[in-house]
Design a protein that fits this description.
GO terms for molecular function: ATP binding; ATP-dependent protein folding chaperone. The protein is of the alpha+beta class. It is built from 15 helices and 34 strands. The strands form 8 sheets. Strands 14, 15, 16, 17, 21, 22, 23 and 27 form an 8-stranded mixed beta sheet that branches. Strands 1, 2, 3, 6, 12 and 13 form a 6-stranded mixed beta sheet that branches.
Length: 579
């Protein structure tokens, strides 16, 4: 258990972000005594437990604001055409999923202005960190910053480079590395749901056999966020901890996919170029439209016959000025003939049109979950937990119940959008809540062995210093994809010889593969990095013996190489995935 007095978690989402925290003494009595900031205000009186993941920089490139404040300020600037030179970033988290990330990666804002991604992410994390600290200090709890452990949530399907990038951004935001944990979003939700559903059942005095998440129970977590759908599966062990049943999986099928289809719908009504001009020139109206879409996306129900959408009048005015006709005159002959009508500033839509907007995200997610449930290692799963902001969608919930309800229990916590951040707080207090994970990759090193013409490709053949035939580039796995790894797992030590007698240093090349069957050669793998070991016990007539071991601590991989013998040198490293 964490010994620091406070655990604070930041849920950094694609569309919305928030934080929560709890105190060690209260956690010991009640793990669900968790405080979230429910005071984010959009300016119109709507209070939210999360703020939009939006960052604004001024004309000097200095951080100006985050969340609703950033939205409001930028729209004020755009409304008076004073926004040139300001940089406005939204929904930028997906950049870490879509592209190969580097330390100097740049991302573009709403006006295609580029800025270093690390500065954008660090500014967002830093604002949330400072907002939380200010909240604690104002209440005069008497804590120092060093009394806090921080937890930053990341998708489980992110690669190692993206996770390292978030650690680096947190460091730049002022969170010391020795006070930081990364938590996988669906794992955090699993921890929270197990705790909360069990507590509710006990408070209702249900019999032991009816209490959910008993020892041996297996369940799947489907984290439906704004950008990605992130899936893990777990089993409850006797001590209450969770072990992973399969490697994390998922894809870019989150709620923003619905937004994309909503935009296509609007463009089909008023035409693409007009909508683009409206978005550029009427930023405040565009913001109101985006918020309306977000509300409809969550409140839309499959049983709705018609949906009433309030569009900004300025959008229709744009259309009428450009086309010299009214929108209502074109709807009867357009692509939505008989299904879409206009009354004043409202568009009345048949529910079938609205439901179609969910199909891509919904169908991709359902198909992926269905495929996972066919796997042998998940045959014992009986519960499906829907969490994340998009899990609030009635359409998505009903789709899961319709598809899987006869064979599985589909469960949704009361506040699915807060399950991750609250679970991350619990994880910060008890990092061993997840006792083991399945490795998403096969990790190993490059080595050479005696060349066998019956097994090895000629292109990998080489001649050693003593004339022996060797096969280079052999991939020697230490851990295989799907292998169960306990927290702090260390692989057995494996011994290798230096390439040549008298070598004064050896370079250990580390690789990984996402294939279920490990490749024979490292040329079919992804290189992770090099570990350089300087040798001291050099014999000009002998090849030095090298011992290599890998360690897996939480979400991080490290490797150690040492020279055999009591006085042999040792070197270890955590991989730099961001070269």
């Amino acid at each position: 258990m964490s010994k620091r007095l406070v655990v604070a978690a930041i849920d950094f989402g694609t569309t919305y972000s928030g934080y929560a925290y709890s105190f060690l003494d209260e956690f010991k009595r009640d793990p669900l005594k968790i405080y979230a900031n429910n005071d984010w205000n959009d300016g119109s009186g709507m209070i939210s437990p999360k703020a939009p993941t939006v960052v604004l920089f001024d004309q000097r490139g200095t951080f100006h604001s985050f969340g609703y404040d950033a939205e409001t300020k930028y729209n004020e600037l755009a409304g008076t055409d004073d926004h040139d030179g300001w940089k406005y970033f939204r929904r930028f988290k997906m950049e870490l999923y879509k592209k190969t990330i580097r330390k100097n990666t740049k991302i573009n804002d709403a006006q295609d202005n580029a800025k270093a991604a690390i500065d954008v992410f660090a500014s967002a994390i830093g604002f949330l960190k400072d907002h939380l600290l200010d909240r604690l200090h104002k209440r005069d709890f008497g804590f120092r910053d060093t009394d806090i452990d921080w937890v930053l949530t990341v998708p489980a399907i992110w690669d190692d480079a993206a996770k390292q990038f978030m650690t680096m951004a947190a460091g730049k935001a002022g969170i010391p590395e020795d006070q930081l944990f990364l938590a996988y979003e669906p794992e955090a939700a699993a921890i929270y749901c197990k705790e909360s559903f069990t507590t509710i059942a006990r408070e209702q005095k249900k019999s032991a056999e009816l209490i959910p998440f008993k020892t041996g129970d297996q369940f799947m977590v489907i984290d439906c966020g704004g950008g990605t759908v992130d899936i893990t599966a777990h089993e409850v062990l006797k001590d209450g901890t969770l072990k992973s049943l399969s490697s994390p999986s998922g894809g870019p099928w989150g709620g923003t996919v619905v937004d994309k289809h909503f935009q296509i719908f609007i463009e089909n009504i008023v035409e693409k170029d007009i909508y683009k001009q409206f978005s550029k020139e009427c930023a405040t109206d565009k913001l109101d439209l985006d918020r309306m879409i977000e509300l409809k996306k969550r409140s839309m129900k499959p049983a709705n016959e018609k949906v009433n959408l309030k569009f900004p009048n300025e959008l229709f005015t744009f259309y009428e000025e450009k086309k010299k006709k009214k929108v209502e005159d074109t709807l009867p002959i357009g692509p939505y003939k008989g299904k879409v009508t206009k009354k004043r500033d409202r568009i009345i839509v048949e529910s079938s049109i609205m439901l179609d907007m969910f199909n891509e995200s919904k169908n991709q997610t359902l198909a992926h979950v269905e495929g996972l449930l066919r796997k042998w290692e998940l045959r014992g799963v009986k519960k499906l937990l829907l969490v994340g902001g998009f899990a609030e969608s009635h359409v998505l919930q009903e789709a899961f119940r319709s598809k899987f309800g006869s064979a599985y229990e589909v469960m949704v916590p009361q506040q699915p959008d807060l399950a991750i951040v609250k679970g991350a707080v619990i994880y910060g207090h008890q990092p061993h809540s997840i006792c083991s994970r399945k490795s998403p990759y096969t990790y190993g090193i490059s080595t050479s062995i005696r060349f066998d013409p019956m097994k090895h490709a000629p292109m990998h053949k080489s001649i050693g210093g003593r004339g022996e035939e060797k096969c280079e580039d052999i991939f020697k796995p230490f851990v295989k994809r799907g292998e169960s790894l306990e927290q702090g797992h260390k692989t057995p030590e494996q011994s290798f010889t230096a390439p040549n007698p008298g070598d004064h240093q050896v370079t250990v090349e580390i690789y990984r593969s996402d294939k279920d069957i490990p490749p024979i050669y490292v040329t079919e793998c992804t290189k992770v990095g090099d570990l350089v070991l300087k040798l001291t016990n050099v014999d000009p007539n002998e090849k030095a013996l090298i011992v290599v071991q890998m360690s897996f601590g939480g979400t991080e991989v490290s490797v150690e190489a040492k020279e055999s013998g009591r006085r042999g040198q040792k070197v270890s490293a955590r991989f730099d995935w961001l070269k």
